[in-house]
């Protein structure tokens, strides 16, 4: 496909520029020349039409490039995963090979002497141990299958991972055993073909070591340091790194890393480079990962041209990475302090317990995907309050520090009020700090609501020509009555709807189940509204990934390891690859506006009355997208 730019002479150099054809790929022209709208069309039919017309050529090229990467098993990491599992060495994320020993049954006289709270604590502890044990059993089975697969693949010098796409364009390997899994699986993957370090490969391997270790330093976590400081950390800790590489079975320092097995793989590669004389010709096969800094808000900042918000997610040139989570945490503290100064006892309690980056991180991370005040509260209850309450009941700690006395005098609230209070503070802070992203999300929700009001789905074409259908139907539900045999249920406990088996030895219990049978012609308005923002942003990060793949391929960089907003390649190619990632990002947003695309699609399908419900396009800021090209920490 040859899509030429009508202004070839005036185009700036692009990663996909071809000497003979000029601008090989201009998103705006390619999209408008072969625009296919899905509207109420069946999505599969729309995609087939797009493929037949050539609109999907870039999508297919990107997917074929992803699944053409030759992989090999990193044998030392496979051996260490198996060794740690067989010897029950605790490594974060690795399942235990032993069953959990349940505590003995409490004697009746001891049980009767317990308070109701103590009895509840015993039950919670027992239930927790049983749940964890069942999970471990399942995880062991999965790991044993993964180890079997890895051993079989280790016999070959190369193998491949076929990929597919979800409806937004996000790519996933079809095999379950892939580099998009947990650290102990991901670290077993390396490129089949080696690539010389060149002059900068060793530096990028050092950055990767600091990232995967992410140890706390005097200047902060390793992944938040400047590149120079990350390299300095490796130099300062080189003896320890070489020690674990030489004997990881005895020196278990690597198990304390944020990504233990990936850190070990990098340490082994680093040690091989050192022992070989620290030569630029050293051929590495390890993928070096470059991750987006809060990817969702990066895409909103670029789409809204928000200079201030872009700088908070490292889209502006700087000497070190930005930290949006810490920025929000600091703002929350200021607000809580003001309440405490005004005499608010709950605010004083929160200050005494401590509010920091880790507390707000999940809230801020999920905000770009439509999590709001209620979701924030539920996250805090689940992640912070429930574990503390369970620990209290199990006798591990004396009290939940966030809990306050209930108004009815019946114990404490388990931190419920504190969770609601903190959720409100975090929500107010994040919406004020990234107010333009908040406006952008509100725009998408309003458009989705207008379409849902007329029982219409919402569709758009992504920057790479992929038709995306945002459709959440209301389903017809049929209630079923099922009967399940259960000998453990005493016949005397049988309910009025249960049955006794013929020999009178057990109970056939009635269970009711709701089964979705067919979609109706109505749209689930709430789902349509809540899912639109993440679906648009995911379609954008998927398009950015594909554009990066295509651009890298033009320059001969074909060994790539991709996980949505994480981009990896050889250490020797990482310097150029990091620039290509940003070039593709800038090119995409200079030629494509998701707000205009979604609004145009909705307007084309709605009635006149429906069009009147559509919001105005959000007002954009003054961010210079070209500055992203010099933002070294945007993907780092």
The main sheet comes to: 3 strands, antiparallel
Radius of gyration: 28 Å
Shape: globular
The averaged pLDDT comes out at 89
Number of helices: 23
> Which strand-content bin applies to the residues?
5-15%
Class by helix and strand content? mainly alpha
Report helical residue fraction: 40-55%
Low-confidence stretches: 1-41
For the largest sheet, list the strands in their spatial order.
Answer: 9-16-15
Protein name: DNA-directed RNA polymerase
EC number: 2.7.7.6
Keywords: DNA-directed RNA polymerase, Nucleotidyltransferase, Transcription, Transferase
Family: Belongs to the phage and mitochondrial RNA polymerase family.
Task: Describe the overall structure.
This protein has 636 residues and is mainly alpha-helical. The protein is 50% helix and 11% strand. The protein has a three-stranded antiparallel beta sheet. A hairpin with a 5-residue loop joins strand 10 (458-461) and strand 11 (467-470). Helix 17 (373-393) packs antiparallel against helix 18. The longest helix is centred in the N-terminal third of the chain and has 38 residues, at 116-153.
Quick rundown:
Among the domains are: 197 residues, no CATH class; 82 residues; 110 residues, 5' to 3' exonuclease, C-terminal subdomain (DNA polymerase, domain 1); 51 residues, no CATH class. It is built from 23 helices and 16 strands.
Features of the shown structure:
23 helices; mainly alpha; 16 strands; 3-stranded antiparallel β-sheet; globular; 636 residues
List the helices and strands and how they pair.
Blueprint: H1 27-33, H2 43-53, H3 57-66, E1 71-73, H4 75-86, H5 108-113, H6 116-153, E2 163-165, E3 171-173, H7 183-186, E4 189-191, E5 195-196, H8 201-213, E6 216-217, E7 220-221, H9 227-236, H10 238-246, H11 260-275, E8 283-284, E9 288-291, H12 295-304, H13 307-312, H14 324-341, H15 345-353, H16 357-367, H17 373-393, H18 416-433, H19 435-453, E10 458-461, E11 467-470, E12 473-486, E13 499-500, E14 507-523, H20 525-554, E15 560-563, E16 566-569, H21 571-591, H22 594-605, H23 608-612
Antiparallel strand pairs: 1-4, 2-3, 5-8, 6-7, 9-16, 10-11, 12-14, 13-14, 15-16
Helix pairs in contact: 3-20, 6-17, 8-9, 8-11, 8-21, 10-11, 12-19, 12-20, 14-15, 14-16, 14-18, 16-18, 17-18, 18-19, 19-20, 19-22, 20-21
Pfam families: RNA_pol
Family: Belongs to the phage and mitochondrial RNA polymerase family.
Domain DNA-directed RNA polymerase C-terminal: 196-603
